[in-house]
Amino acid sequence: MESLIILMILIILGYFCGTWFEKKHYKSINEREKAFITMPTITAKTIDINQSDVENSQLVYGSVVISNDYFKQILASLRNIFGGRVKSYESLVDRARREAVLRMKEQAPGNTTIIINVRLETSAIGSNANKKNTIGSIEAMAYGTALTLKI
Length: 151
Prior knowledge:
By secondary structure, the chain is an alpha+beta fold. Helix content is 45%, strand content 26%. Helix 1 (2-35) runs parallel beside helix 3 (87-107).
């Protein structure tokens, strides 16, 4: 009985800590996205920019690895039994991609006008990477070309 109580306490503690850390991360992402709202990032086959207008170009990238907490992995395992959306993994991928784009923007020089040809790569890593229907941690990487245009 005592070990069952300890297990329940750990599950509840995992739920509240995971939720708190996720909300804290989303708050940080939202604040930093507001700071970079004037730096557009685009992906297009052709871009109408004259080469003589480009003052500087530089490869920029940002990567992040984010892990899911055990509580959400338990819920995702239950979802795998019944099927449907796995919201805990959706928020994991969303946070990782947004954080990677923010880190890419933070690496760009201060006078960057625009980041072009942005690409996003996502992969599962860790001990659960090759197991079917399980995700422990994911890595997201964003990269592109930062351009500084002459004014």
